[in-house]
Design brief:
Length: 353
């Protein structure tokens, strides 16, 4: 692996021939994995892309992104990142699956591909992932532990009857210096979130909302309300924070099936990013992670209400949102117009970067 430029990229049609060659190598050695590739490689690739976008999913199946590990055009292996867990995945498979083609094993690529997929999991907003392997697969166990895996327990595979080892990897403990991560919010994040909200209101809404509203924002009072709200969150509610070296610099919150915009089943209730961290792609990352979380909860569309005079409206338009509704909102005793931007297909936001 010395001096190699390894890249983890999403599977696409440009990998068609290389994928076919890799799968034939598996089958020549009696390994039937990825059998759908040999049956119809183009249909296989389309199916993986649909899965990543959350399209045409069978009941009980979560969105899953398929990646390939490449070096100088050579395809070395594949990986799958599931965006959420259902009960069956907690027994076997977990969040991440990966494989290295037979001719490239024992060269360190297994450790590398898992490390790169974990970085994608952080971008997705996951702060803890489950990785599994057969208990007799000593090599995979070493790879998982080398990437921070902590053994949890054993289960029995419903498919093979084999004993399976379950490992959890804490992504919040794997933050590189200077890296901004997106993860689920905790109760301890409330003070940081409130500070971001107050700061962004004061930099964004001067001259738009009444001055006394901006002046009277209380960290203590908002914290109290938000702590209670966080404790009462429902399974379909989502709150993500963007963290820069231990400091909350942005957040997104909302939920599935809120239904207050006709025709849209998911809503982004708020997106806030400190001015110092704007125009760095962080807003797009937060929206993408949020949209994927809602899709995993069954949402197929998304909307957000914004003040009509919000100078950041263009951000939502650049993401493909279109105005779909209007209504007044009372802020400080003044009725201010707000506009709902909508995305009929939530999957268009998955690749917002």
């Amino acid at each position: 692996m010395a001096n190699e430029n390894l890249q983890l990229v999403e599977l696409s049609v440009r990998h068609r021939d290389a994928l076919l060659a890799m799968v034939k190598e598996y089958h020549d050695q009696g390994d039937p994995r990825h059998g759908g590739v040999l049956e119809d490689v183009d249909a296989y690739i389309r199916r993986q892309q649909d899965n990543s976008a959350g399209r045409t999913l069978d009941e009980g199946i979560v969105p899953q992104t398929t990646y390939v590990l490449v070096s100088d055009g050579a395809l070395l292996g594949t990986a799958r990142l599931r965006h959420a867990l259902v009960e069956s995945l907690k027994i076997e498979d977990g969040h991440i699956g990966y494989d290295i083609r037979p001719s490239q094993r024992r060269k360190g690529y297994g450790t590398a591909i898992l490390r790169l997929v974990l970085a994608e999991a952080r971008k997705l907003g996951l702060d803890r992932v489950l990785v599994t392997c057969d208990i007799d697969n000593v090599g995979s166990g070493k790879i998982i532990r080398a990437n921070g895996g902590v053994f949890d327990r054993e289960t029995i595979s419903p498919r093979s009857g084999k004993r399976v080892s379950l490992y959890w990897i804490d992504l919040s403990a794997r933050v590189a210096e200077g890296e901004i991560i997106i993860r689920d919010a905790t109760l301890e994040d409330i003070p940081g979130m409130v500070a971001v909200r107050i700061a962004t209101w004061r930099t964004t809404y001067v001259g738009i909302v009444p001055d006394h509203v901006l002046d009277e924002q209380s960290q203590e009072k908002i914290e109290a309300r938000w702590r209670q709200w966080h404790l009462e969150m429902k399974p379909d509610d989502v709150t993500l924070v963007a963290e820069d070296n231990g400091t909350v610099v942005g957040f997104a919150k909302g939920g599935a099936h809120w239904g207050d915009v006709p025709g849209y089943d998911g809503r982004l209730g708020g997106l806030y990013i400190l001015k110092s961290h704007q125009r760095r792609g962080l807003g797009r990352r937060l929206v993408a992670a949020f949209a994927k979380r809602l899709a995993a909860r069954g949402c197929r569309s998304l909307a957000i209400w914004v003040l009509a005079r919000n100078p950041s409206r263009g951000f939502y338009e650049r993401l493909g949102g279109t105005p779909v509704a209007e209504q007044p909102i009372d802020i400080g005793g003044v009725a201010l117009p707000e506009v709902a931007y909508g995305w009929p297909d939530i999957s268009v936001l998955f690749q917002a970067k």
